[in-house]
Amino acid sequence: MDWTPRTRSSGATLSEPVVGVVFPGQPRARVADTTVPPSCWVGRLVTSWPDGSRTWGTATLLDDRHLITCAHNFYNTRVGVGAAQATFWPGLNRDAHGGLVQPYNALPVLRYRVPDIYQRIGGPPPGPGGIPSNEITRYLYDYAVARLGTAISDPPGDSQFDTSWPGTNVVDGLQCTILGYSGDLDTTGCTQYTRSGAVRVDDGENFLLYQMSTYHGDSGAPVFYQPPGRHFWRIVGVHVSGVPSTPGTTNGRNFAVALTEDVIAHLQQMLNQVDS
């Protein structure tokens, strides 16, 4: 979609994309140097809305101009409103003393695209504790792409992330990493954090499930791995939200849309649309 929002409820206050579940014993670490691949191609996405509010999440460069993130960073289905504008801050971080580190220029988003079906039936921005397990299918299409107004400079240069599905048999049980801007650890959303863990592909091959901790600001973060002996990183999921554990159990999980071949084909169509 373009920058002309479709507003169904004027004057509504848009909630921040407070997303995910924090699990005991699942630590996240501050990225010490975000100029080092692949952290240099992940950044903070700041979104401005028609009511004047702002939210933030995570986005990833796919080359030198295009981003992948989640749809609810750009479109709020609760009130039927699209983002007014957005800015991408690649590699934004804080040092060990809390000082702001901005190794690269902030770049405005020129155009973005959210799946039409997400706008019609997608779930609203998830709340602080995640979502009920019976609502997870509302986020099947919670992915989006964007085109920057200016190609990113070198450094950091052309991204070495790609989207490619190596097969469910490879992804199920795979050790993956998430890079994002967890708001419970830095309430300003300016620190990039890393965490790693095994992912599971759900029975419908629609989602990746994991117990890597996430929170506000991790919306749209890449779930990825580096194939052995390769100099690139493969994104296999876009982080969405979490389902908290039921009382007395440890069955909670966070989840991402799985970037299967069908989803990647849809993403390519959307990339062509933001380029046209």
- How many β-strand stretches? 19
Radius of gyration of CA atoms, rounded to a whole number: 17 Å
Succession of helices and strands: EEEEEEEEEEHEEHEEEEEEEH
Q: Report how far apart the termini are.
A: 12 Å
The proportion of strand residues reads 25-35%
Low-confidence stretches: 1-19
| Helix share bin | under 10%
What's the number of helices?
3
| Shape call | globular
The major pleated sheet works out as: 9 strands, mixed
Q: Mean of residue pLDDT?
A: 91
**Category by helix and strand content:** mainly beta
Give a structural overview:
- This protein has 276 residues and is mainly beta.
- 9% of the residues lie in helices and 32% in strands.
- The protein is built from three helices and 19 strands.
- The chain has helices spanning 116-121, 168-171, 261-275, and strands at 29-30, 42-48, 54-61, 66-69, 75-76, 81-82, 85-90, 93-94, 100-101, 107-113, 144-148, 161-163, 175-180, 193-198, 200-201, 207-210, 222-225, 233-243, 253-258.
- Strands 1, 12, 13, 14, 15, 16, 17, 18 and 19 form a nine-stranded mixed sheet that branches.
- Strand 2 (42-48) and strand 3 form a beta hairpin.
- The longest helix has 15 residues, at 261-275.
- The protein starts with 28 loop residues before the first strand and ends with a helix.
- Residues 1-19 have low confidence and may be disordered.
